[in-house]
DNA sequence: AAATTTGCTTGCATATTGCAAGTGTAAAGA
DNA sequence: TCTTTACACTTGCAATATGCAAGCAAATTT
């Protein structure tokens, strides 16, 4: 259980209160770029998140309306996590981090193709990707509405 | 003392390893937008960082070459912290966070003017601001070179 | 010479993280 | 049907990080 404390009215501070940790943006990244959508999917990611931390981050993201829990079409045992528009709109932030990292850090070769594409036409890329994510978003309905 | 562990080759993950916490970006924000440059300045910020945390974050930022320690022109008792180009190039990330926060969070009225300006002409704003920060950057010389 | 400013460090209580193991329900296999 | 297995967590506990208050040394001011 995390507290929804607001340290100030600063937009950066408020934003960091929501996703300013080492894991939240990685979950969103997985959902945006790797079509991951279940608890098990997130556990498989390279960084190796602990199960309890994943649970707590998913809860935080849901509380902050960045993700929604859906019933999985394949099985009742599974839970399908979906990005909200609020999270999709973090794409520009995530893209800018990519560009910065590309400039200053040593990054894995497999992501360089995407970054190259972004560098060519950033706005076009963001718009296209946003549209695509929105399409995925509107595909199913939430179970949390049933409560 | 923080460890420089890299969880993966992902640009987001690597970036979060550097500034993915609740304080680092706030220090950079203070240096970018409020001309803060000393330890005492950072302590005065609205969010209320603890002295030991501030010291540890400044050290981390320096280790990651986002800031440099300079001797303060006014006094030997003071230390002047300065942004590097690497940190200045985080401006687009910070701007995008502002835009996202403006859309989804309740933010203080005093920052709305700046956001409005950004929304009008983002690229122009970023370029102008970057130039200005760079000008400030090239004004003094580092003391860490003396070691 | 004494008091104050400045930039930290130190000690300690509390909170968060990470790891390993366990739990409950649903689905799949025998 | 009975038994595994899959899945999404929860729990306990050790390790680490954070937050608060106090302390401290060097530089500056009074």
Task: Describe the overall structure.
The structure is a homodimer of 147-residue chains. Chain A starts with 10 loop residues before the first helix and ends in a 10-residue tail after the last helix. Chain A is built from 8 helices and 2 strands; from the N terminus they run H-H-H-H-E-E-H-H-H-H. The longest helix of chain A has 16 residues. With 147 residues, chain A is mostly helical. The interface between A and B is large, with 44 and 44 residues. The structure holds a DNA duplex (30 and 30 nucleotides).
Summary of the model, kept short:
2 copies of one chain form a homodimer. With 147 residues, the first copy, chain A, is mainly alpha-helical.
Please tag this protein with its features.
mainly alpha; 147 residues; 7% strand; homodimer; DNA-binding
Topology readout:
2 copies of one chain form a homodimer.
Chain A: H1 11-19, H2 24-33, H3 39-43, H4 51-63, E1 67-71, E2 79-83, H5 85-88, H6 91-104, H7 112-120, H8 122-137
Antiparallel strand pairs in A: 1-2
Helix pairs in contact in A: 6-7, 7-8
The structure holds a DNA duplex (30 and 30 nucleotides).
- List the chains of the largest interface with their residue counts: A-B, 44 and 44 residues
- Specify the structural class of chain A: mainly alpha
Estimate the helix proportion of chain A, in percent.
Answer: 40-55%
Calculate the terminal CA-CA distance of chain A, rounded to whole Å.
Answer: 19 Å
Q: How many helix segments of chain A? A: 8
Radius of gyration of chain A: 16 Å
Largest sheet of chain A: 2 strands, antiparallel
Note the beta-strand portion of chain A.
5-15%
The oligomerization state is homodimer
Number of strands of chain A: 2
- Average pLDDT score of chain A: 93
Low-confidence stretches of chain A: none
Shape of chain A: globular
